[in-house]
Structure formats: C-alpha cells, structure tokens
Amino acid sequence: MRKRRSDGLGVGRKAKRPRRHLYVVMDDGEGYAVRKFDLSSHRDTSDDEAEQLLEQRTAGVVEQRLPRALISLDSPTGEYFAAIGTKIMVTHDSWPDRAVPVFDVRTRRLSLGPPPRACRNPRYPTYLPLGDKLVSVDAGSTELLDPPPPKGSDVEWSWHKLPRRPFSCIAVASYAAHPDGRTVFFSVETRDDSASTFALDTESEVWRRLGEWRLPFFQQAHFDPELDAWVGLAGSRDTFGYLCSSDVPPLCADTSNQPPAWKLGKEKLFCQDPAEENCGATLAYMGRTKAGNRHFSVIDEEYKDIEVEDEEDRPRRHLLRLTSFSLKYDKHGDLQTSTYRQVRCYKLPHVEGTPLPNDVQAFWM
Question: 152: pLDDT confidence band, cut at 50, 70 and 90?
C-alpha cells in the first residue's frame, strides 16, 4: 500500500506535540522577568547510557549566561504568579480592576484575564494546578479556574467560587493535588508546631479535616505515577536541601486520619556548600521522557562568597542553579536520583537590598 503523501500543509502527517520548556520567573531589579530554559540536553538519556556520563555528574559546573527575558511584569513578590495551560498570570491588584495580565509562552502575547475574587486585596495566596485547572486559596476566597474557552466562544473565562478554607492562609506549609484529578490537600502548621491536613473535593465542594498531621514537604509536591507517590522538597530545617516522597493518603473517611508513610531522599541536592547562602528553592515536575524516565528539576537561588585575601571585603556572586534528574527507589526501597544528574548555574543580576525568600517561581509548560 502506498503511503499517503503530505500536501505541504501537514495533511496526512501526525501533528507534532509542542515541546515543553521550563519557564522561570524571578526579580531582576526592574520587575519580574519570565525566562525560558531549554533542558532537552540528556533529558532522554536512559540509565544505561547515563553510566557513560557519570564523570559529567561530578565535574565542575561552569556559569552560563542567563537567557534573555521574554517579558517583565510588575508584582510586589513572586507569589502572585500562577500558571494554567500555556499561560502565566499575575494576580496582584496593581493592575486594572476586573483584569489581570496573562502571558502566553507559546504565542508570546500579553492579554488580560479574569482576576480571582480576592485580587483587590490578595494576601498569602496559594495556587495549585489540578489537571488542566487551577485552584486558588487566599485570605478572601477559595476558587477554581477552568482552562480558557476556545477563541470565538461566547463562554466567559472566569473563576468559580468554592467553599472558604477552614484554616489560616498564613499557616499553609505544604500542598498537593490528588491523582483523582478533583481533590487537593493542604497542610498547615501553627507557631506552636501543631499541624493539621485538610482535603477539598472540588466537585462536591466539601472540605474535610484528615487529621493532626502534615505532609512532609516544603510548599508544593508533585505526583509521580511511576513511584505512585508525591515528591517534593523536604519540609523541615534538618532536611532542607533533600527531596522526600510520600504515599498518597486514602480518601476513605475511616483511614485518612493517619499520616501517610514517607521517605527521605539519600542525596542532598542543594545547600551543600557552607559558603552558600540559599535564598529559596522550588521543584518542577517535567513528566516522562522518551527513555521512560520521570524527570524533575530543582531551581534554587543562592549567594556565594568569592575567596579573596581581604576577608572583610569579600565579594559575592548571585546565582541561579538548575539541577535536573530522574528519581527511583533503589533495591532497598530508598529514594535516590538516577545515575545522571545535570547541573547548570547562571549568574543573576545584582538586586538592591536583601532578596525575598522563596521568591523564584518555575513552570513546566
């Protein structure tokens, strides 16, 4: 049988899926810049091929030039940035009423989108992707945003109000989306170290308190189907710089009051050098590669002292480090990174004053 030929317009060919990239939002002193990082190199390397790259894993890391900014947007902090589909939005109230700026990373177009109801006075917002939707939990409201309607549609793109959260937003310590595609988990921790975890079913619109325990993560965790577990940055001071994984708690009312089992990673991925002052870190989940690996990146911001003779006037370098890897359980059931791990460092521009902690945001899209 003769193969069907293309007519030059792509007819007869299977449409290629757009390649995804890592987009990092950071303060560059003149606003929050959105930058695109291409992490395709070695991403599709199998474990067998990775053995040949072992020397690169421990080799000295050379500083690279920071990619140019695609756009710079005004915001008091990075916490007001959220992503849905191929769009990055800023939800702060410094923009006109009833609209927030939305930047599409594929088309490179800036448009206006719907603000959350709390946008006029946002305080301590948390944004959590749930499938192709976005959950917003703020001091003023809890809301759900569906994907934008197709062009030409009469349907208005807007947020859907959900029941008010039964906890203080300032106490949120960690959060994750359940693989059922409808439930989100939030763990809170108060100043007296008491903890609680809550689950919200976005379809039945019911909050439920699961127990007096918290997920072991720092901020957002991601579900990895191969590990059948959530993965995130470890959430205690003693484990800062490590990854950890946690079983997903069952949603049954008679069993969910028990904390899930979790494991701490074997390797410290950042904050290894005493000369480094870490300004914050975030974890991006980049899905499955062609080689079948589940891929992650840790993005951390740091200041590092430069060794000079005059100790009192020691200059400092401001760096962004991207560490890419895949995860697996070893034969003993311990969490570890795969053989190959890629580390890239970028010199950041000097910013007046002390950088805000945990201000860098990263989106795989």
Answer: confident
User: Looking at residue 140, what is its pLDDT?
Assistant: 77
Dist CA 78 CA 191 (whole Å): 24
Q: pLDDT, tens digit, for every residue of 244-273?
A: 999 998 887 665 578 999 999 999 998 887
How far, in Å, CA of 305 to CA of 311, rounded?
10
Parallel, antiparallel, or unpaired: how do β-strands 219-220 and 172-177 relate? parallel
User: Token pair for residue 78?
Assistant: 């990075």
Model pTM? 0.86
- The dihedral sign for the CA sequence 230, 20, 172, 282: positive
Contact indicator for 125, 186 with CB cutoff of 8 Å:
no
Burial of 352 (0-12, 13-18, 19+ CB in 10 A): exposed
Judge contact between 183 and 191, C-beta under 8 A. Answer: no
Residues 6+ positions from 214 with CB-CB distance below 8 Å: 173, 174, 187, 188, 189, 195, 196, 197, 235, 259
What pLDDT, in 10s, does the model give residues 31-84? 899 999 988 754 444 444 433 433 344 345 678 889 999 999 988 889 999 999
